[in-house]
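Q: Entry one of two.
A:
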Amino acid sequence: MDKTVKSSADKSAILEEIYRVIIERKKLKPEDSYVAKKMSEGIDRILKKVGEEAGEVIIAAKNGNPEEIGWEMADLIFHMWLVLGYFDLSPDIIYDNLISRRK
């Protein structure tokens, strides 16, 4: 992934790229892939990780450190994307729900 993201459109595209990689690694199951490992462990292990990451977001927010909050939020979002990938659900399900709430 290119680390020279500049515009907000480029920044939002990272979520699509992450999802694409998750689906690819789920399918190909590379031996050294964290995603493939988590997928093979099953949904309960993935959801446990989501819960752990949510707790870390809470602690980071209580600490009030912006860098820590950003790091932990990124971990949480990544693991939520694993849930989508596990069920072969497109991120569109989230985007559509967010859009409908905005109206």
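Q: Entry two of two.
A:
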Amino acid sequence: MNAPLPPSVKLDLSGLINALVQAHAEDSMSNPLSAAQWDTLSAYLQPVTLAAGHTLFNQGASERSLYFIESGSLSVHYQDEKERLRLAIVTAGSVVGEGAFFSHRPRSATVQATAPCKLWSLTAIRFTELSNRQPAIALQLVMAVGAVIAKRMANRRRRIATT
């Protein structure tokens, strides 16, 4: 993946914002921030591109980044000793990685691109910095991601797709 950017670099998040506004999936994330807040948040995010078929993270990995999906789609699947089970397809305007991000536990599933994807990564360390420097933005972001988790938990089919 790409190296983290220094905090002074601000990236164009207009594609991500548009994906949030236009998303209609049941577990889409709402747009919790103003344009100025997104501009501030951009310094804490890292762009990630993923080709179709490439893996974002594997089940059991201890990496804790949260990923906002700007474009493309991702397959969330669980592998046990007998078989591979697809849990969900997650599309633009939502997030993946929320389970490990909040729980400090290993990844519960593997996430793989089913189409070319553009994502935005927020590492746990950068979130801590955001929380210290911009607590209102961090709180609004956490509440929006928490709402995604609640939507997934309310849907029996997708309940186990929290990664």
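A: Comment on entry two: Residues 14-156 form a domain with the Jelly Rolls fold (CATH 2.60.120.10). The longest helix spans residues 135-154.
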